[in-house]
């Protein structure tokens, strides 16, 4: 497909139309190199392959959707910019975390050149699986990747609730969505392959890929904010630790604080056709185990079994 893409006679749209496709939870998605993606993101992958210029000091935050990206964006932004801003007048009090760290496959106003204009060190994000990263990133450019993973049951429920909210038309019922998710059929899915790729890379290259779990971060956020800071090359000094800076950062970025801010409670992040993403859509409950309020125990066991089976032999367990 990439060689086709570089051939001006071959339109990307034409190529995408030849990929296997299926009506997803709320829109059509296509299968590209083992992953189900919205056609727009296949186009982005192809564009990024040719145009993305990584910098050695880039920090790329990665995740399956609904695994805590917004929180990770806020924390990483607060950590990297902590010498510029004080807590009383912090940009996160006035700007949505999604806005301060752009997605490389969905840059601001869909303008891919925008990424080039950002000062170094850039803080970027993506939901793309590692195997679909631009080759320029994976071929030893030196940048660092922070991945956040979450219990698939909670990620699934969070995604279903989110999709129902943003698509503003009848999305599939929970049971149908669950069956699709369990088959690996969801945007950026299969969920487990996405996690596994990053996990393997974090084992092979621990100084390049940091693998985090949402649940562990929630149980000890200060420990993880310090871990993130050390990994991205801006560790907290003793004085900062004594002054409680990591704790302040956790307080600034916690669910209660962020979800109660005017900027995150009102307004829209994105609008296109029927799809309206309100700023508040990124904040729902922020809890571990909410799946139990939506799925039966049996569904939970079924998904656990499937994920266990898919991860068998990888030494990765949740
Ligand atoms: P729930 O729907 O389970 O509440 P993403 O940011 O990847 O889209 O993930 C969204 C999920 O993260 C939602 O989960 C959301 O409520 C939760 N979330 C958002 N901000 C958070 C924060 N500061 N701390 C913990 N969880 C947060």
UniProtKB/TrEMBL annotation:
<protein>
    <recommendedName>
        <fullName>Sulfotransferase</fullName>
        <ecNumber>2.8.2.-</ecNumber>
    </recommendedName>
</protein>
<dbReference type="GO" id="GO:0008146">
    <property type="term" value="F:sulfotransferase activity"/>
</dbReference>
<feature type="domain" description="Sulfotransferase">
    <location>
        <begin position="57"/>
        <end position="314"/>
    </location>
</feature>
<dbReference type="InterPro" id="IPR000863">
    <property type="entry name" value="Sulfotransferase_dom"/>
</dbReference>
<keyword id="KW-0808">Transferase</keyword>
<dbReference type="InterPro" id="IPR027417">
    <property type="entry name" value="P-loop_NTPase"/>
</dbReference>
<dbReference type="Pfam" id="PF00685">
    <property type="entry name" value="Sulfotransfer_1"/>
</dbReference>
<comment type="similarity">
    <text>Belongs to the sulfotransferase 1 family.</text>
</comment>
């Amino acid at each position: 497909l990439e060689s086709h893409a570089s051939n001006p006679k071959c339109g990307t749209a034409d190529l995408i139309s030849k990929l296997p496709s299926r009506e997803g939870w709320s829109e059509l998605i296509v299968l590209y190199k083992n992953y189900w993606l919205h056609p727009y993101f296949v186009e982005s992958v192809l564009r990024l392959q040719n145009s993305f210029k990584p910098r050695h000091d880039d920090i790329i935050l990665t995740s399956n959707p609904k695994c805590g990206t917004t929180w990770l964006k806020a924390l990483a932004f607060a950590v990297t910019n902590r010498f510029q801003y004080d807590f009383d007048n912090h940009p996160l009090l006035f700007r949505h975390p999604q806005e301060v760290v752009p997605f490389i496959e969905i840059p601001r106003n869909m303008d891919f050149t925008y990424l080039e204009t950002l000062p170094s060190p850039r803080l970027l994000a993506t939901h793309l699986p590692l195997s679909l990263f631009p080759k320029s990133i994976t071929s030893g450019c030196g940048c660092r990747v922070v991945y956040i993973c979450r219990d698939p049951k909670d990620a699934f429920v969070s995604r279903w609730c989110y999709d129902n909210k943003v698509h503003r038309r009848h999305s599939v019922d929970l049971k149908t969505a669950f069956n699709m998710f369990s088959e690996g059929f969801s945007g950026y899915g299969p969920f487990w392959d996405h996690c596994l790729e990053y996990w393997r890379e974090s084992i092979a290259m621990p100084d390049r890929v940091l693998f985090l779990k949402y649940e562990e971060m929630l149980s000890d956020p200060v420990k993880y904010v310090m871990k993130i800071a050390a990994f991205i090359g801006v560790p907290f000094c003793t004085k900062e630790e004594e002054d409680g800076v990591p704790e302040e950062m956790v307080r600034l970025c916690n669910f209660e604080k962020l979800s109660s801010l005017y900027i995150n409670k009102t307004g829209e992040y994105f609008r296109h056709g029927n799809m309206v993403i309100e700023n508040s859509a990124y904040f729902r409950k922020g809890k571990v185990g909410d799946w139990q309020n939506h799925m039966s125990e049996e569904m939970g066991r079924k998904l656990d079994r499937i994920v266990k089976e898919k991860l068998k032999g990888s030494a990765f367990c949740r």
